[in-house]
Amino acid sequence: MSSAFAPLRNDTFLRACLRQPTETTPVWLMRQAGRYLPEYRATRAQAGSFMGLATNAQYATDVTLQPLDRYALDAAILFSDILTVPDAMGLGLSFSEGEGPRFERVVRDEAAVAALQVPDMERLRYVFDAVTSIRRALDGRVPLIGFSGSPWTLACYMVEGGGSDDYRLVKTMLYARPDLMERVLDINAQAVAAYLNAQIDAGAQAVMIFDSWGGVLADGAFQRFSLRYTAQVVAALQREKDGARIPCIVFTKGGGPWLQEIAGCGADVVGVDWTVNLGQARAQLADRVALQGNLDPNVLFAPPEAVAREACAVLDSFGRPERADGSWGGHVFNLGHGISRFTPPEHVHALVEAVHRHGRLLREPR
Amino acid sequence: MSSAFAPLRNDTFLRACLRQPTETTPVWLMRQAGRYLPEYRATRAQAGSFMGLATNAQYATDVTLQPLDRYALDAAILFSDILTVPDAMGLGLSFSEGEGPRFERVVRDEAAVAALQVPDMERLRYVFDAVTSIRRALDGRVPLIGFSGSPWTLACYMVEGGGSDDYRLVKTMLYARPDLMERVLDINAQAVAAYLNAQIDAGAQAVMIFDSWGGVLADGAFQRFSLRYTAQVVAALQREKDGARIPCIVFTKGGGPWLQEIAGCGADVVGVDWTVNLGQARAQLADRVALQGNLDPNVLFAPPEAVAREACAVLDSFGRPERADGSWGGHVFNLGHGISRFTPPEHVHALVEAVHRHGRLLREPR
Are A274 and B274 in contact (CB under 8 A)? Predict the structure, then answer.
């Protein structure tokens, strides 16, 4: 089926992921289809709720494409939520205004852990339908990124029942009953792998694993309870589809202390937040993986000139993508976290233009 | 006046801060006088409010000493809040139950910044009175640590008006009007230095600067807007009092990416959170400073055996304090953040005992 999709007209993002030559630095923004856009708010009002948007292929397609109509972004990302998988496990996801996600049922004891199962992927059909619908609507403009939460990040929500500021319950399980925690994580890893593979089958041209809460773990615990299971997912992914390589991006918010280890997890691209010095990270990893990031989304509240200046600083920190020996490092420009709902939309123009303009300069012969 | 204080009977903490030989690893806990202790909750109920506790020298003395009566801790820390300085600047600090600190007046525009001044230290007399009262009550049991928020951390609260999850307002000022931000930070640095020096005059035997929100800054912004002003404070501190060296501890939550630079700020001790690998940090810094940390406070929810095991892992990560050449590295055991109000008090016993026991083992001849 996916062979029927239109050929790609802009594959800059995919090439940067794979450390191949590009004419400029590709840019997309985490949560680029979101509340800072008035057209998004209008569609969401029609849909009635966040899940109303996410579960309807047409709405999901509409909002995914909205930022592409405004800005010269180099990739689209599936409009969905990282918590669809535990929802399909039967935990009952809901979103209350201003409070974020909540699960009706939580996984805190031996019985709840024993009852967990890899969900039937048919329960996530609405996601795969959205992927196919978006890919068709894109008609080859830019590649489509599929995504999931990491096994650890899903576990945080499954145990806590929602967001948390101290991760007390999930860490209590981790330290008191590591055996239970590992069973949850193993099931999550199997589920996430199946979920991402089905997104690839449906038309996703790259996949991203959001380890949004990996950075709250202690050194040692991160490796054992987060990275190990992310690596299990990456190892189980199909990496080629219809002759095209499917890049895999792993983003651990707060993962700066463990870049070296994260870069060894099998992903093509490592996403980094703004605390990371991109140039130092690149040197440390010696271009063995591409890097994605890492502007502080709060920069977008500054005037357009300041936005452009800070974007150039990020690009300069990474440096010239082409190396002295003619091989290439890969940089995908992004924020270090989702774009804020309070962002003035016109500032995003300044950002995207600055990245493309300065990215070309960084490729000129010396 | 301070020469009238009783001589110290346990100076293990001070020696570890200064990388001198110790019989075991000293331990104290951030927020050790706090809500997890029933006796603290009783005193607080008497005082009526958090500020009622902090502004009354007798209450502040009572709660500071409570954890020392339960546990064999090696240091006391002044009971106060990091936000006393902006309160003395006239911003009007209050604490609402469950919501954390709020300022009545915020510093968001040119006029508010222009009006800021280093406060008259007489407005903070209640803090210095508490320091002297606590030091007398300690009667030489353990050293007393004074503290303040860092210039950047104070600025976060002064601009945001309270806690924040995205630091949007303070970062908007930082990126849009760095000149205003720097004026706020310069005033804060002068105020914090005067405040800590007055605490030392009143009897504090070590001081700690809490850069609780340094870790939310981007690489580059951290150095310019946080570390630079922390270093300005450290440079202005009196480092000796009545013949005794006054160690200075700098703790940046989330500061792992910048350890090398933080270690160069002039402090004797660098506090690190649990994301940092203590052994790697020590190797990186080559024992040029002592390290404080770094157990995840959530470990204290696990059973006592697990608490002891994780504490030993932290000590082992730091390794034997004595080096092959006979010189010493310094390790002050602590959590990587304040102790949780939900901590079972008996688990703290297991922690303190494990640190002292295993700390002695690490000093035995090979």
Answer: no
Which A residues, 260 through 319, put their C-beta within 8 Å of a C-beta on chain B? 274-278, 294-299, 301-303, 306, 310, 313, 317
Provide CATH code, domain A2-361: 3.20.20.210
DSSP label of A120:
P
Cβ atoms of residues A15 and A22 within 8 Å: yes
Yes or no: domain B2-9+24-273 corresponds to CATH 3.40.50.300: no
pLDDT in tens, A22-52: 999 999 999 999 999 999 999 999 999 888 9
Contact A302 B176 (CB under 8 A): yes
Cα angle A54-A56-A61, degrees, rounded to a multiple of 5: 80
Cα A136–Cα A138–Cα A139 angle in degrees, nearest 5: 65
Name the band, by pLDDT with cuts 50, 70 and 90, for residue B95: confident
Q: How far apart are CA A206 and CA A249, in angstroms?
A: 8
Considering only CA atoms, which of B39, B30, B79, B83 is closest in space to residue B55?
Answer: B79
Query: How far is B352 from B350, CA to CA, in rounded Å?
Result: 6
Pick from A218, A296, A301: which is nearest to B275 by CB?
Answer: A218
pLDDT at residue number B2? 47
Helices (H), ranges, chain B:
12-17, 38-47, 50-54, 57-70, 84-86, 110-115, 125-138, 151-160, 168-176, 178-202, 221, 228-236, 259-263, 278-285, 304-318, 345-361
What pLDDT, on the 0 to 100 scale, is given for residue A4?
Answer: 84
Whether A2 shows a pLDDT value over 60: the answer reads no
Q: What letter would DSSP give residue A167? A: -
Evaluate if residue A95 carries a pLDDT over 90.
no
- Residues forming a β-bridge with B335: B295
Active-site residue list of B: 31, 35, 44, 81, 157
**A214, exposed or middle or buried, with CB in 10 Å at 0-12, 13-18, 19+?**
buried
User: By CA distance, what is B294's nearest residue in A?
Assistant: A218
Burial class (CB in 10 A: 0-12, 13-18, 19+), B209: buried
Residue A365: what pLDDT?
Answer: 87
What pLDDT, in 10s, does the model give residues A151-185?
999 999 999 999 898 999 999 999 999 999 999 99
* CA dihedral over B83, B84, B88, B92, signed as positive or negative: positive
- pLDDT score for A355: 98
Is B186 within 8 Å of chain A by CB?
no
Asked whether A20 and A328 are in contact (CB, 8 A), the reply is yes
Helix (H) or strand (E) holding A347: helix A345-361
Distance of residue B308 Cα from the nearest chain A Cα, in angstroms: 11
For B307, which residue in chain A has the nearest alpha carbon? A175
Mean pLDDT of A224-240: 98
Per-residue pLDDT band at B3 (split at 50, 70, 90): low
Whether cis (ω within 30° of 0) applies to the bond prior to A334 is no
In A287-352, where do the E strands start and end? 290-295, 331-335
Distance CA A169, CA B302 (A): 10
Residue that the structure tokens 């860490």 belong to: A171
Coil, helix or strand for B336? coil
Q: Tell whether A108 is within 8 A of chain B (Cβ).
A: no
Per-residue model confidence (pLDDT) at position B121: 98
Q: How far apart are CA B169 and CA B172, in angstroms?
A: 5
